[in-house]
Design goal:
Helices cover 42% and strands 15% of the residues. It has helices spanning 5-9, 31-44, 56-63, 84-97, 108-112, 116-127, 144-157, 175-184, 200-209, 219-223; strands at 20-23, 48-51, 69-74, 101-105, 133-136, 161-163, 190-194, 213-216. The protein is globular, with a radius of gyration of 16 Å.
Length: 232
């Protein structure tokens, strides 16, 4: 379900904050940096703080009672390398630590090999842990028929959100990919845009195309109406 037309008609840099999942997925993060990131999510009014699973407990402590969600990702950034059992077990661990949403990489190789049941069941194993799951579809790596299959299989598996890509290394988030997903989802499934979202103009175009969430590390610049030099 896309955002209400009244919301889209009144978009401004500051009004985009509630749709941003403030993302920090890097190597060598310290506790101080993670705590700062979570505090930023609160002060800017972002939807969620997206952090590595190893730091979920610290973020839970900062965000408790604030209304800002705790989100994490798995089988990422090297998507599609975990076993399905391992992915489901890690998802269960994240939920026990306090994660409220999980973004997951997909098994693109299984999809391209026609192993549709394995592709779907890999997602379903994470969905079974009971929190909303966002599926990173890596659209640029797929043929048109594979894209359609990935969308249908993800929805069959119970995904709550579909994403165009895992990061800007795969695709810079764009209205064409988001509109494609928005036109395919049904049954309450929604769309999250991800991939080098660095400016208010880009963010607004993605929301207008049908996204309801934006995954970006450049949220502070976006809500200030500026363009970030870097972002993922």
């Amino acid at each position: 379900m896309a955002l209400d037309s009244k919301v889209l008609d009144t978009l401004s840099p500051a009004s985009i904050a509630p749709y941003i999942q403030h993302t920090l997925i890097e190597t060598g993060l310290t506790r101080d940096r993670i705590v700062q990131h979570a505090e930023e999510a609160v002060s800017y009014g972002f939807n969620a703080a997206m952090v590595p699973g190893s730091w979920v407990p610290e973020v839970v402590e900062v965000l408790r009672g604030t209304g800002v969600l705790v989100a994490s990702a798995l089988d990422f950034p090297a998507c599609g390398v975990m076993t399905s059992r391992g992915k489901a077990a890690e998802a269960q661990s994240l939920v026990e630590l306090g994660a409220q949403q999980i973004d997951i990489g997909v098994q693109v190789g299984w999809l391209k090999s026609g192993l549709y049941d394995r592709f779907r069941d890999d997602i379903a194993g994470v969905v079974a842990v009971g929190v909303p799951v966002k599926v990173m579809l890596e659209l640029p790596l797929l043929t048109p028929d594979e894209r359609d299959a990935a969308v249908e299989l993800s929805m069959e598996a119970g995904a709550a959100y579909l994403k165009n890509a895992s990061s800007g290394a795969v695709e810079v988030a764009n209205p064409t990919s988001i509109a494609y997903l928005a036109g395919k989802v049904r049954g309450g499934v929604q769309v999250k845009a991800s991939g080098s979202i660095k400016s208010y103009e880009q963010a607004a175009s993605l929301l207008r195309a049908g996204a309801v969430l934006l995954g970006t590390s450049a949220g502070k610049a976006i809500v200030a109406g500026a363009a970030a030099e870097r972002g993922y």
